[in-house]
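--- STAGE predict ---
source: upstream dedup step, 1 unique chain passed
mode: sequence only
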Amino acid sequence: MKIIPRDIPPRAAWTLEQGGIHPLLARLYAARGVIGMDELDDGLGKLLPPSGLKGIADAAVLLADAIAKQQKMVIVADYDCDGATACAVAMRGLRLLGARHVDYLVPDRVADGYGLTPPISQRVKAMGADILITVDNGIASVEGVETANALGLKVLVTDHHLPAAQLPDAAVIVNPNQPGCTFESKSIAGVGVMFYVLLAVRAEMRARGVFTAGQPEPKLDKLLPLVALGTVADVVKLDANNRRLVAQGLKRIRAGVLPVGLTSLFAAAVRKPEVATTFDFGFSLGPRINAAGRLADMTLGIECLVTDDAARADELAKQLDGINRERREIEGGMREQAMEIVDSMFDESEEPPPAICVFDPDFHEGVVGIVAGRIKDKLHRPTFVFASSQAVGKEHVLKGSGRSIPGFHLRDALDLVAKRHPGVLLRFGGHAMAAGCTIEEEHLDTFENALSQVAQEWLDAATLLRRLHTDGPLAPEYRRADMADTLQHVVWGQGFAPPVFSEEVEVVSQRLVGEKHLQLKLKHQGQPVDGIWFGRTEPLPSRVTLAFRLETDEWQGVRRVRFLVEGAEY
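--- STAGE serialize ---
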């Protein structure tokens, strides 16, 4: 591992300090590309206008007409947290705008696969729908939209995934990544796209004079806690616009303005809404929602987010918590099994292969993505993990989920594999860092060799060297609990990394706790401080350069600062 301190543009840091930003935060923001106070303004008025999204005006007319005619709308969701929150935002938002006939359908990961398929369109028609709305999917659903059109449905696709060469023939498409869209935030999550569509619908209805004293204009900002959760959980880049959406959601949650389902999820996760952080979204609430889509039925997750019955929300949150515990157990066993397979691929003295593919008949398809991420983190290689499809009649089909490293665009790699080996990939899609595909089991070796070939061509020694970018030394006066609290309060995430400091420290003592974590007594600039390195079992030398996060630890009612170690260079 190579620890690399970030460059801190002094002029930008000085400008932010002059604007009243704490000196440490000014340094951290400047190192992440912030050059002025305007970028740190998280007010709703600073959000990018909906008009920048191609197709959004047509979407607003379509939905405003449907509400006026009280037509039946059915939302087709995705089975991850972004899809679930996008569905909940659509359900709640359309009802706030006056829609009386809104329902949803979420595909089953095993039986239906991903996206709007022809059978899903048929089920939507059977529900009596006039309008079919996709959230967090649909941009690749050419056949599904074609079937919906043939059935007389009007289709609105809202998505954020990268499109293929052929777009579906939907009535309207709203996707910042479709050709010709000038919306600046290409990283907006699916839930964010749906929120923007609702803003446009409200503006269209306002222009039509719909809102009166008898029907006042609804406040859509109450949907922002759900937008924030889905945005962080989908690990999209937190550009300035996404940070504003998340910050606004967090403000409402901390003030106690949130759906009862989120309150119940915080309770199930033993987290406190009044001090909510992006960490809670990414590591506590998000996984509990995702677990439903991985192992059970995402309807549980969506119902938890749309219900206004507190008792029902508590019951659903407890179910989701139980499913998440089961997911962790399955994942733990699969991870050990997968690592054994990976370890057999190369000797300890050798470098890992340029790309990793792992399959075992006992793997669960709902957890392959998580396990791929664990392997990628350990070996710093693009990784795909496959499981046999559990769908009836598709036992010889493998479903794979991949995770990548910086410098290797996973979806583009799959696209190249598909071009070089036509017919091997039954379907694929995704982003730069995460993607999925479906193949016949007989083609696994072909896929593995093809992906490795692309990795050999695209990856060089510099890319394959694990790098950890840090914020350099931590001044001893900032090694305080209140400073740790200040840092945790900020919106950090993908593309706006949480602070990690690095410098040489003295290791006074070290011991294993729980057989797999290294507990440390350190001297930081001559002063004692505790440290913990989760998942580390090998001892450290007496002097070492550590990369660490600043966090608080509570013991017997006393809050103390400790270093959460991320890596070492020695």
